[in-house]
Amino acid sequence: MVRRVLLFLLPLLTSVLMAEGPQHVLIMHSFGRDYSPNGEVASIFRTELARDNPNAIEFVDASLEMARFDGEENEKPLLDFLRAVFEEQMPDLVVPIGSPAVMFCRRHRSTLFPHSPMLLLDAEKRRVEMMKDDPDVVSVGPDVNINYLAGNIFEVLPKTRHIYVAQDASPIGRFWTTVMKREWDAAYSNRATFHWMNDQSLKQMRSTVSALPPDSVVLVGMMMRDAAGVPLVEETGLDAMHESANAPVFSFNDLQLGRGTLGGRLVPQKRVAVEGAKVAMKLLAGVPPSSLPWQHFPLGAPVYDARELKRWGISESALPAGSTVLFRKPGLWETHRSSFLIFVGVIALQTGMIAMLLAARKRAREMHADFTLAADSGNIGLWSRKPGVDELEGSAKWRTIFGLPDSGSVTFEDVLARVHPEDKSMLRSAIELAARDGGAFSLEHRVVHPDGSVRWVSSHGHVHAFGDRQKLEIRGASRDVTERRRATQEAEQRREELAHLSRVATLGALSGSLAHELNQPLGIILSNAQAARHVLACDQPEPEEMCELREMIADIISEDRRAGDVIARMRTLLRRGEVSLQPLDVHQQLQEVVQLTRSDLIGRGVKVDFQLAEDVPPVMSDRVQFQQVLLNLITNAADAMVANPPGERSITLTTCQDGDEVRIDVKDAGTGIEGEPESLFKAFHTTKEHGMGLGLSISRALVTAHGGRLWATRNHDRGATFHITLAATKGVT
Ligand code: ADP
Q1: Which of 133, 165, 315, 610 is 20 to 30 A off residue 23, Cα-Cα?
Q2: What's the gap in Å between 703 CA and the centre of ligand 1?
Q3: 355 φ, ψ to 5°?
């Protein structure tokens, strides 16, 4: 026997004794390294410690082989040997695993290793209480609530009537059997019957558990050897129960979950091993055991094996709250994870896009409703024609504007039929032009309603051509502008009337000089006519007289023309008529107006100087209105110089081309402008006793209507200058 132990220890001890430097840890097993669960706890402990400890460690394993040998009498050879081994070199740490090893170390440490610190590992709390005051000892182990070990069963299978307990016949096994019998009978005897199988061999136990009555379970406890004395290394006992039982198998330790036990609140042996390694590291670093707390962990949170739950038809919903289920079979999700993810991704993308499209459609509908509302409130009718469809869609307002029926389909031709015959071709060509250039159109046209009334409509739109230009999408907005047109026309009419009145008034003021302008040629005509009659009264006029006669007649004709011109100009200015734009020679117009006012100007002693640039292009203007403006400026200039001494009354008329414009300046040496020059252009602003104060405001309106400008400036020396600019006519000279 001793030989066997020695053989087991020898290689380890040799290496320990020969090595220098590493720390020595004696692991004292209760049952041997191959017995579960202590063997597994030792293995985890050793791995953790070797990995994390800063110094190298030599582990020395010794075993009591308690699973096989009862009684302290068998300890002697082991004691002798350990004594011999550690005579010179004490271990740096002694770690008894499980309560038998703890008891062994407690009994013999004073002789074996009196100065080595001791870590009691994996011994149940109540089994180590008696060592609590030892300053060289610290303990890490479980704190087992015995009742809970069986309570696990009722938590998931409350109807359980029979519990078959598989526990071995070793001293430690018997100890626990006694404790459990006492506790469980007290707690659960009214719910179930406990059947203790301590006295059965493994074979007998197999046969017992293979034919259990309904509502039975198997509870596997400590199984190191069976009643026949056969050692049960590792999990032989548990595995056998799992294989044979026709009922669920429960056990105590978390390290056994996954080997066929159902689960429950389990002894946290993995945690004990891991935390124990941490404490061992501190002890090896020289931390005194008395300064380290004792740690005893209660049973862990409930944890179950999914495969066993399934096997025994136990629903996960029946598990206690906070349960964890392990060993789930990979489901469809795990097996086809990537394809599933791609599928889900595609679906999600598609769904997202559909959602976006729906949202966009909703938004578009809302926007369309908003637009229609805004358009309605602005009296605007919206319409559109889709490509390839000869049907127009539009708002109710659009139908009203075009005098279309309230409902029913409307074609483009239906709409064109409503357009005034004179404007049809204009509308068509505007749309065709926009279609060709892929752009917008904008025009005002008339619409004839079914009752014959004519409305003016302003239509703006955008044409988009698809593929073969036959497919046109047209969107448009139309607005009834009849009232605005009417108002504009009326305003134009008023302005024309006013302009006419102004001209009449001006000509009235010029009537004296105009009479003079007529009297002059009439007087010349009269005197020439009298002289001619006198010559013709002679029977035989002399040839020279005949020559004079011809000149007289020529004078009569020329003066008659002159008088006729004056009358024609007056009639032109007095006329009320349509505005007609035509290219006008600016210089000729100036000459004509000066001609008209000549007598008046001469009478007032006003001299007119012309400073006319060469090659001034014509301007597009209405002759009457153009002359009216010049007439107004010239008469105003003359009026402004009334108070000037004779000889200081001169008007300078200047023309020049300024870029694309022709500019005409009327400069005087008069009173000049007091205050803001712009104030002169306000209607009814006058400083004259009989003035109306309308001349300049009307002149500005006329020039502006021609696209030009009229403004006044002060001269540096004296007087004022009035400036007109009008667009030069291109290509006409
Ligand atoms: P009216 O000649 O009937 O007064 P206008 O509108 O033609 O009306 O002129 C408005 C006023 O502008 C004139 O009364 C005058 O005070 C001022 N004004 C016009 N032309 C000149 C000028 N060349 N120099 C100084 N003041 C002028």
Answers
A1: 133
A2: 17
A3: -60, -40
For residue 197, the domain's CATH number is 3.40.50.2300
Beta carbon of 715 within 6 Å of any ligand 1 atom? no
For strands 454-466 and 440-448, give the pairing.
Answer: antiparallel
pLDDT of residue 88: 72
Q: Is the CB of 77 under 6 A from ligand 1?
A: no
- The Å distance, Cα 650 to ligand 1 centre, comes to 17
Question: CB neighbours of 525 closer than 8 A, spacing ≥ 6?
Answer: 555, 556, 559, 560, 563
CB contact set of 706 (below 8 Å; sequence gap of 6+): 581, 619, 620, 621, 622, 625, 626, 726, 727
Domain residue limits at 669? 581-733
- Whether residues 156 and 304 share a domain: the answer is yes
Give the pLDDT confidence score for residue 494 in this predicted structure. 74
Q: Is the CB of 673 under 6 A from ligand 1?
A: yes
Which token pair is 555?
A: 């004078």
What is the distance, to the nearest Å, from the Cα of residue 259 to the centroid of all Cα atoms in its chain?
54
For residues 586 and 698, state if they share a domain: yes
For ligand 1, say whether the CB of 403 is within 6 Å of any of its atoms. Answer: no
Residue 637 CB less than 6 A away from ligand 1: yes
Sequence-distant (6+) residues with CB within 8 A of 166 are 197, 205, 209, 218, 219, 220, 221, 223, 237, 241
Distance 405 CA to ligand 1 centre (A): 58
Residue 109 domain-assigned (yes or no): yes
Domain's final residue, options 116, 142, 168: 142
586 shares its domain with 674: yes
Report the pLDDT value the prediction gives residue 65, as an integer from 0 to 100: 66
Q: Which residues are CB-contacts of 496 (< 8 A; sequence separation ≥ 6)?
A: 576, 579
| Domain annotation covers residue 278 | no
Whole-number Å distance, alpha carbon 696 to ligand 1 midpoint, is 7
Residue 152 lies in a domain: yes
Contact 638 CB / ligand 1 (< 6 Å): no
Cβ of 631 less than 6 Å from ligand 1: no
Predicted local confidence at residue 68, as pLDDT: 52
Number of structural domains, the chain?
A: 6
| C-alpha to C-alpha distance for 101 and 94, rounded to whole angstroms | 11
Residue to mutate (ligand 1; options 504, 632, 680; most atoms within 8 A of CB): 680
Query: Same domain for 705 and 562?
Result: no
Ligand 1 site, residue 591, Cβ cutoff 6 A = no
Q: Within its chain, how far is the Cα of 13 from the centroid?
A: 73
Nearest ligand 1 atom to the CA of 666 is 23
Q: Are residues 153 and 138 part of one domain?
A: no
- Separation between Cα atoms, residue 534 and residue 548, nearest integer Å: 12
**What distance in Å separates the CA atoms of residue 309 and residue 157, rounded to the nearest whole number?**
11
Residues of the chain with pLDDT under 50: 1-20, 67, 732-733
CATH at 455: 3.30.450.20
Neighbours of 474 (CB within 10 A): 20
- The per-residue pLDDT for range 150-192, each reduced to its tens digit, is 888 998 999 999 999 998 777 777 878 888 888 898 889 899 9
Q: Which atom of ligand 1 is nearest to the CA of 690?
A: 3
Q: How far apart are the first and last CA of the chain?
A: 140
* Candidate from 636, 650, 676 with most ligand 1 atoms within 8 A of CB, to mutate: 636
Of 113, 142, 171, which residue is a domain's last?
A: 142
Q: Using the atom order of ligand 1, give the atom closest to the CA of residue 636.
A: 20
Q: Which residue has the tokens 């009569």?
A: 556
Residues 633 and 526 in one domain: no
Q: Ligand 1 in contact with 633 (CB < 6 A)?
A: no
- For 119-156, how does the pLDDT look when each residue is reduced to its tens digit (9 = 90+)? 999 988 888 888 888 899 999 999 988 888 888 899 89
Same domain, 486 and 572: yes
Q: Which residues pair with 650 in a beta bridge?
A: 607
Do 132 and 16 belong together in one domain?
Answer: yes
Distance 692 CA to ligand 1 centre (A): 9
Structure tokens at 413: 């031709």
